[in-house]
Amino acid sequence: MTANVTVPPSNGGGLPGDRVIRGTIARWSETMGWVDRDGLPLPETTLVVGYATVLRRWKDKKPEYITEHPLPDPKQLNATIPVAEWEIGLDGKPLPPWKLTYVIYMVDAGKTGRQFTYAHDTYGAMLCFNNLEEAIGVMRLLRGEHVLPIVHLEKRPMKTQFGMKTRPHLDPIELRTPGGGGPKLAPQSPTPQLAGPATAPAPTAPAPTAAPTPAPAPATPQASTIFDNTKPVKPVTVAELIADEIPWK
């Protein structure tokens, strides 16, 4: 079984239609960390298959999106909506409806192949997105456009007006490119061979009857993983990042 993943376009390319959320919603909170919509922990490592920025607003508790780039100025959009129609935030003040939202698409690097979408408009989400985008940009500059990072889901400290908090972070730990060839096929049974003319055997005494030996159970094919369907890529070195090497004489 191979995991066919529809790769969303990169940042700046927009998204087809308004389909922003794909797979399961991923969330991050300071108390629970990385979890899905049911509050269950996300896999520790995922493959990032795409990222984008969109505009999102909530109306009647349902999200609306603007995905086509270049995105309009959210301040200009909000200026056309009466403040009386804005939703009220936790602090009791009206919230601007349209907000720049950072979207990251991830796939479980294990055997499930589940897809997750992280989409948020907070300052911590912006830092997570920008750091990941910069890392991917460097990787693709040095290794090609089709390089995808496997990331470890982590957190980082963040200074706020309310003191030190934590924010989401995706740490690239390995580079992969699609096209690993898929899982190996199970060995096939040998082709039956035709036997020659039979020769009548000499009569012998009947042999004692023995209990038949049970045939071995067929091997159960193992589910493939992201690692089975991608190829490893040479890590980016410090010398490449700074475009310099120590001269040896």
Description:
The chain is α+β, with helices and mostly antiparallel strands and 249 residues long. It has one domain. It has three helices and nine strands, in the order E-E-E-E-H-E-E-H-E-E-E-H. It has helices spanning 74-79, 123-143, 238-242, and strands spanning 24-29, 33-36, 45-59, 62-66, 99-108, 115-120, 148-160, 163-178, 230-233. The chain is globular, with a radius of gyration of 28 Å.
> Could you tell me how far the N terminus lies from the C terminus, measured between alpha carbons in angstroms?
53 Å
What number of domains? Answer: 1
**Helix/strand order:** EEEEHEEHEEEH
Rg value:
28 Å
Unreliable stretches (pLDDT < 50, length at least 5) are 1-14, 181-196
Q: Give average pLDDT, whole number.
A: 78
Which range best describes the helical content: under 10%, 10-25%, 25-40%, 40-55%, 55-70% or over 70%?
A: 10-25%
Task: Kindly summarize this structure in a few lines.
The chain has 249 residues and is α+β, with helices and mostly antiparallel strands.
